[in-house]
Every structure is written in structure tokens, then in C-alpha cells.
Write a structure and sequence with these properties.
The protein has 437 residues and is mainly alpha-helical. It has 17 helices and no strands.
Length: 437
Amino acid sequence: MTQKNKEIGFWILLALVLGNIIGSGIFLLPSSLAKIGSISLVSWGFTCFGTICLALTLGKLSSILPKTGGMYAYNKEGFGDFIAFQCSLCYWIYVWAGNAAISIAGVGYLQYFFPGLTDPVFSAGMAILIIWIFTFINVGGVKEAGVVQVVTTVLKLIPIAIVVIFGWWYFDGSNIVNNVNLSQNPHRSDLSAISYAAMLTLWAFVGMESATIPAGEVKKEKKHMIARATIIGTLLVSVIYIATSTVIMGMIPMEQLQSSTAPFAKAAAIILGPIGASVVAIGAVISCLGAVNGWILLQGQIIFAAAEDGLFVGSNYFKVRNKSGSPARAIIFTSCLITGFLFLTMSKNLVNQFNLIITIATSFALIVYFFSCCSYFVISIKRSLKISIFEYIFTLLALAYTFWAVFSVGFKFIFYEMMIIFITFILYIFVNKIRAK
């Protein structure tokens, strides 16, 4: 792609960060966390601190190595082809599983208007329709997808602002004080409940690295804006998340919140009545749609970056762009996988389906975050870069946070992660054989 066709600037980068972070997590997580109790608010504190450290680390890496692929590019520079291959697969799994979760959250809010979507087959069908609408938008090109992202990001902030500003007038502290640890099946200790909730809250922040992935589409003189968009976006979202989660848990009794598929609409109904609930539900749907758009943009960039280096299965096929400059083959192939995944995870309980998918997605994201933090130190040593005490500390804290978060997903998911990691050894043999030819 020529320099004149590179269309991504600061506002699209910031919209990618805000749009991809503020997606399904903020709008459905209050119901997920209500199953654990108000102790989950402590988890928000840990998660906000850890993700800010991660954002600072990724922002610094984007300044050192502003290449398409983001964390894939950092791990390739730091550890070489094999770790880059592993990370590209893990990150790719996380992205398309995450897209499935976001589309499900959007369907949850559509149920407010169309009760028939409570049927698992209809809800899966609607989620798949959402995926393919935005797949074709992204096949049209990066610039078109970026414009959609800016518009949906602005619109999604409206329902959040309504609840945060006016919700405090309906806040009841007893809802929080009397429902500290509600986790069941199994019942968890306070520390275990905090750790488990932290895994769920981390899902709400995945996407902080979004501005780093399409770095190859950013004008050379604006590369520094990648780090700025990453850090500013993460800080803004931290404030929004803590405020919204606290106010909603205080407004809605925990037993009602646990079963709600549209907690923001429920909160808006308390504030403004049925009309307000409808407005907020529409805003939540738009939010999820914007997040789907942003992640579908990135799912193609990840495969394309790895394929260009010959480090993806079927690299010769996936490294081709269409006339609009979009990695269309990579985008369409991934959307096909999302379609199958949505059918395989169908559930009568939409919140449980959402929790299962975000656990899978987050567990794979954590592997890539961990390697990226390690890559920062390796790249600094390779390039003889000076690291300030501040940079050293926040990267170590980010490393410690990701290490702790990996174990919070539970041994069952760690087992599945290890199986995928082992499979990458076999796949890498075939990839290397093809590259040798």
C-alpha cells in the first residue's frame, strides 16, 4: 500500500481503542459479575491498574517497532519466528472467539425489542448475521471500516453517560454491602472470587492494543500517535468502567441483575422509564456493533501480518489484498470460523454462553500479553535501548499482572491452552516445510 493511501490518524486510532474496549464487556458484564457479588468491584481495581501498566508497555513497544500486526510483530522481533507463530495463532483465536462474544452481547440487547431472540437458534442466527454484515464492510477497505468505528464510538458513549450521570440518584448502598460474595458452584473464597472476577473484568479491557495492530496503515509522521491513543484510551475506559459497574450494582438488586441480558437498559428504565430504557438498549446494540466492526478489521490484519512473513498456515493464500487494500481472504475465512463457533456454543442461558466464550478468548489473549511484556526487555537489550526506572517498573508490573491473570482462568482452561500450544509445534513443522520450498 502506498503512503498516500494510508488513511489512519489519531482519531481513528483512538476510536479503535475505545470502540474495541467499550464493546460487549461494559454492557453485559454487570450481569456476569453479579453472580460473583460486589466483591468483583475490587477486581476492577486490580484490572484497571494491570491494564494501564500493559497499555504503557504496548505503547512504548509501538514507538520502538511501529509495524502492522502489533504484538505479533513485537514477539517476532523479540523471540523469533516460532514464538511469533504461536502468538499469532493464540491472538487470532482470541480475536475470533471475542467477536463471537460481542455479537452475542448485541443480541442480548436486541432481545429487549425482539423477545423471540431468546430462542438459542434465533439468537445464534442473529449473531451470525451481525458478523457477516461487518465482514463485508471491512472487505470494502480499512478507511471505510475506520469511519464506521468513529461514528459507532461516539454513539455508544450516550447510554453510558446517561447511566453514570443520573444513576447515582437511585443508588442503594445496601445492594453492595449485603451481597459481597455470592459465587456458587463452587463457592469461592474471597481471594478466589476476586481472581475469577478479575479474569472476567480483563475481558472488558482486551482491545487496548488495537491501535498497534494496523500500524502499517498509519502515516509515518503520525506513528507516535499509536502510543498516545493506546494510553489515553485505556485511562478513559478505566474511569468509565469503575463508575458504571458501581452505580449499576447499587441501582439494581443483585438477584435481578444476575439474570438480566440488558442491565444498562434496566438501569435506564429506573432513571427515565421505558423510553429511556429503549434509548439505552439501542445505544448498547450500536456499541456492540461498533466493537464487532473494529475486531473484524483487526482479525484480517493479524493473519495478513503473519502471512506476509510466511508464518501462518496457508500464507500464500492469506497474504493477498483485494483492490480496496483489504486482506479480504483472511477476514472472510475467520468469519466462517466464528459462524461455526457460535453454533457450537449455543445455550439457553445467554449470560452463561457469554461467560464461557469470554473465558476462552481472554485466556488466549493473556498468553500473548505475557510474551509481549517479555519481548519489551529482549528488544531493549537487542537494540541497546536505555530503559528508565519508570519504564522498567511498569513493565515488570504488567508482566506480574498477566502471569497472575493466566492462573485466574482456572486449570480447566489452562489445560485447553496447553493443548493448543502443543499443536502449534506440529503446525510449525508444516509451515517451515512450505517456507523451505
